[in-house]
Request: fold
Amino acid sequence: MVGKQSLIFENDVYISCGSTVVGKKEAEGPLGDEFDLVAEDDMIGTNSWEEAESRLQELAVDKLFIKSGLSADDIGYIYAGDLLGQLIATSFGLVKYNIPLFGLYGACSTIGEALSLGSMCINAGYADHVIAAASSHFASAEKQFRYPLEYGNQRPYASTWTVTGCGAYVLSSHLPQGSPCVVVKGITTGNIVDYGIKDSMNMGACMAPAAADVIAQNLKDLEVNEDYYDHIFTGDLGSIGNQILADLLKEKGFDLKDKLYDCGMIIYEGNTKCAGGSGCGCSAVVLNTCIIKKLLSGEYKRVLFVPTGALLSTVSFNEGKSVPGIAHGVILERKEL
Reply:
């Protein structure tokens, strides 16, 4: 334990493999050539949006096994989640593997929660390999949280676009083949932060305070300054939330504006019709195609990965409640073997 909320792992936790599956819109963005699989049909051959999201998870884990050379028998646990009620995308999507499952809900921060808990498990020696995964689907999320697609409502500029995608990762205690590799050096677990914001169409404003809180706490716990990380990647704050985050961190005494990048801005870069991407799948797919890739190439040496989540439901929103936020920090480092 380091400081108030952080852990530095005694044993190396390797991200030995990652896989990504996305929809057509995501593949049209700047990371399009980096994804493992692209579903040209958003229904992915199923009968409903919810089944389609389950299929995303199944495809991502299938691809993970192909790339890693592992099988379901090699995996101790799966840590996974999605945005749907009672995690139905996860439970129906992963049932065939017969692997012990921890179903997680951290809203759009779920991949950070999965990586954190999976890394704790590997560091403690409870398993040799675990899977961390998270998914979202634009249509299933819109159906549950906002309006039917047929309604055709106008979206405000501050709104984000839910990413159709799934990212899955093998966390391992074993040295991966080849060099260099990426290790999870430590984590900073976030608090629930509520600034009383009720605008569900401005998720960046709802989640930015939680991101600022966990980033500042990470730097305090580790007793490091702004130069410790090459970059800090938030999950899905979008352009508006990213600016709010920079302002909040400056109020806390940290000038990090030039180091802050947002996965939601990266995946749809150049798209002026929304503030950026969101959903559990957003940071989950950008992690492998952008962040890990640049760690392996040597462009980055150390980054802080901070997926963010808005903790609302249809019930809480309809009852007039505010939208609390949460964020989880994961320290990723390049390591030469």
